[in-house]
């Protein structure tokens, strides 16, 4: 791919990744908040304990969405490694998310149903930035892409012995031929 088209293409892939991450993440937030409220209402667990359990439920749902939708084209070499990293980073996200709720509930004394949901949502938002970075960087790594047709026709680095190669002066490159005295022809070799 030419340099002129490489950046828009990369940005397009990045924006699609963000959109897919957002779809799965939004579904995870809905599962998280529904489970949080159901656990509090029907099981009577304390706010932060209910939040931790709801977060575990949403982590499982999110893994399925990320593995088979958002990052289905990413390296799936070792599922055991991927799962360990995913759940490890998800646990860090769980701590970030529930620290916000804990501070609001026990630090500020804001433990009403609406306040708990607002701070649960804020905690999810803060943890999402960390999760996006960690999942795309460590868990679902990009596969080495096969060169497309346009990239295959692009010249690569030129060997140092080839005509037009940089001789240390920094003026020659693959795109800009060297000075005429550096070029030779097959006829010159037989003289």
Automatic annotation (TrEMBL):
The chain crosses the membrane at residues 21-39, 51-71, 83-105, 117-133. InterPro entries: GtrA_CellWall_Glycosyl, GtrA_DPMS_TM. It is found in: Membrane. Residues 20-140 form the GtrA/DPMS transmembrane domain. Residues 150-178 are annotated as: Disordered. Pfam families: GtrA_DPMS_TM. One of its GO terms (biological process) is polysaccharide biosynthetic process. GO terms for cellular component: plasma membrane. Belongs to the GtrA family. This is Putative flippase GtrA (Transmembrane translocase of bactoprenol-linked glucose). It comes from Actinacidiphila rubida.
């Amino acid at each position: 791919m030419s340099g002129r088209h490489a950046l828009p293409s990369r940005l397009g892939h990045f924006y699609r990744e963000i959109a897919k991450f957002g779809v799965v993440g939004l579904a995870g937030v809905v599962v998280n908040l529904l489970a949080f409220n159901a656990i509090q209402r029907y099981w009577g667990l304390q706010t932060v304990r209910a939040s931790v359990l709801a977060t575990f439920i949403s982590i499982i749902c999110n893994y399925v969405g990320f593995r088979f939708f958002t990052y289905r084209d990413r390296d799936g070499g070792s599922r055991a490694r991927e799962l360990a990293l995913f759940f490890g980073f998800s646990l860090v996200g769980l701590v970030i998310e529930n620290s916000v709720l804990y501070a609001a509930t026990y630090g500020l004394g804001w433990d009403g149903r609406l306040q708990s949901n607002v701070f649960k949502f804020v905690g999810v938002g803060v943890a999402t930035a960390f999760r996006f970075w960690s999942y795309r960087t460590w868990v679902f790594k990009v596969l080495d892409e096969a060169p497309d047709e346009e990239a295959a026709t692009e010249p690569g680095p030129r060997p140092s012995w080839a005509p037009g190669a940089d001789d240390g002066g920094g003026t020659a490159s693959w795109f800009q031929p060297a000075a005429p005295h550096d070029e030779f022809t097959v006829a010159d070799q037989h003289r």
